User: Fold these one by one.
Assistant:
Number 1:
Amino acid sequence: MPLEVFQAPATLREQLIEFQSRQQCYPFTELDQLKEELAGYVGIYLLYYRGQLPLYSGIRTANQYSCCMPIYIGKAENPGKRTGKGSVAGGLIGRLREHRSSIRQVKNLDIADFDFTVVAMAVDLVAWGEAVLIRHFQPVWCSIISGFGIHAPGKGRGAQMRSMWDEIHPGRSFAVQLPANPITIESLQPQVAQHCQNLAMRLGCPMEER
């Protein structure tokens, strides 16, 4: 007899996506002004790009009126969840600050070109919620250009190749020391453009700038 597998009801996934769509979109430059509001919460966060980098022109177009197509989705969990101890002091605000720092370090991105939304959740639902929203939105930095969410390599991994994200967006101090990645913006452009066009149609985002 095959093993029975528990599946979350489809209606629950749809409720999460609908709940996310109702959350306010904030400029990333206003993160510190929201620290009290976000403090103590865990959950999912979505980053949206509106800048002029040609590689992401489809994302900029999709987000010209509202936060429609995230470029990245990540999660903030309680560090002590496995033991039941610890706090959520880092939580959403801590993880968003880490990403803000990454963007500020690179040469071809500007924090002023990003917005974000958050979905505060019970800690036991965070990993599930992240997976649901990534599958739904298929963000470019989660599906094509990997490496944005990584930290500096641990001891013994310093010879690993630079991530795709760090090769495309040079500047993070730990990545400068790593061997180059052969990927180029030119080689990624067709795949990213087609991906964004398909997503815009499915999500109902604008496909042309006005």
Note: Residues 64 and 210 are 9 Å apart (CA to CA).
Number 2:
Amino acid sequence: MEFQEVIQNRFSCKKFDGQPVDQSSLDHVLNAGRLAPTAKDLQEQHVYVIRSAEGLAKIDKLTPCRYNAPVVAAVAYDRNNVFTYPGGKHNSGIEDASIVATHMILAAKNEGLDSCWVNFFDPDLAAKELGLPENEEILMFLDLGHGAADAKPLPTHTQRKDISETVSYL
């Protein structure tokens, strides 16, 4: 698929058919995340793949937003391995994990998979329930799978502000 098609056709799928995701496609998605750029190339991300019945039941307890996806990737980052920017107010953890997740979302579409970025959950409770190390923080869950036959984007999906409203040249 051409990149422009990937970014135009990808939408947050809120209805999956529940069919398994083949390992080859999942590997491509995970590798796209691994290749994502991170500040100072620290690669502080860690992706936890949840696809067992037990693991998915835990996700269902944490959020109502799994939408029958057969795979959920919890994208986390190591709080102890981030780059702190000048001024000390921000560090690279959230942005780097976001870049990793975005690479995975676009790779999923390129693999013929649908996805949904989920952040409707308590990250501390999720980390505890999934048994993550104390130094890791979950940024998001990424639902992955095949959209149901009647899955479709929100009605506003193709409505975008004019570029002059979102871009300024200084």
Note: The chain has six helices and four strands.
